[in-house]
Amino acid sequence: MSLADRRISSTLAAATQPLRGVAELALASRYPEARPSPEPALPAPPPLPGDAARALSLPAPRALESVQRSLASVIAARRSGRLAAGALDAATLGTLLAAAAARPAGLADATLDPLLFPVIFDVDGVPPGAHRYDRGQHRLAPIGPAPRARMAETAILQHEHATGAAVLFLVVPIGRWLAAFGDRGYRGAAFAAGWLTDRLYLVAETLGLTYTATGGFAPAVVDEVLGLDGRAHTAFFAFAVGGHRHPTSREAPRGGQPR
Fold first, then answer.
1. Which of 27, 213, 226, 252 has its Cα between 20 and 30 A from that of 52?
2. Mean pLDDT computed over 158-168
3. What whole-number distance in Å separates Cα of residue 55 and Cα of residue 258?
4. pTM
5. Nearest one of 48, 42, 50, 29 to 175, comparing CA atoms
């Protein structure tokens, strides 16, 4: 057995389910003899979780062009911060989720796109729990319960991120990324998730929400809550959203109204 074979064998022996398949795919591009072909046959995407028969249609996204703020001011103001208390309305949530309708430039294969799986805590008109956002139909397919207390205790490691109205989990088809590009697929998945996160920042800031991106969660626990197997799809990053931001004295011009 070659040194490379022994390394592969020992590494895979230490890997635990359900990450064994991901480890196999990552190792496949590390050693030339195990490297995938230039045009690998990608596995068919598995069915996504969520009850389509009970999917909830969301209100049409709001026209962000009507907000009296320049793009430059939005870019300059965007930043993570403390989440404010208060519920969101379904239209605001739908406008934020619609940020996922666009796709990263240069990503020709739509099956590699990151997906949004919102865990709803306090949104008027939307049942609490885990959902999958169907960007084509602009609706939420319910997955199952995800009580705030349980998520804060077992899944969301930065507990303050469970105090808001919702946490939007960015789910990537990690199995397809790794099968297509080997270990470099992880970088591609990270780029795609980062691109979508930046869109969420811009939309949330435009809407005047409180928000923060976060990686402080237990992936295996979140995957279970979202109905994911951790191999074909996994929760990669998250975006926590709170209520509307209350303007400070520096943000409010004469008359007390925010700019």
1. 213
2. 91
3. 36
4. 0.78
5. 42
